[in-house]
Amino acid sequence: MRDILVAGNWKMNGSNAANAELVDGILAGLPASDSVHLLICPPFPYLAAVAEKVTGTRLALGAQNVSQHESGAYTGEVAPSMLRDTGCSHVIIGHSERRAMFGETSDIVAAKFLSAQDAGLVPVMCVGETLEQRESGQTEVVIDEQLGAVIDAAGIAAFGDAIIAYEPVWAIGTGKTASPEQAQDVHRHIRAALAEKDKDIAAGVQILYGGSVKGDNASGLFAMPDIDGGLIGGASLKAADFLAIANAALSPG
Ligand code: 13P
Question: Contact 113/125 with Cβ under 8 angstroms?
Answer without folding.
Answer: yes
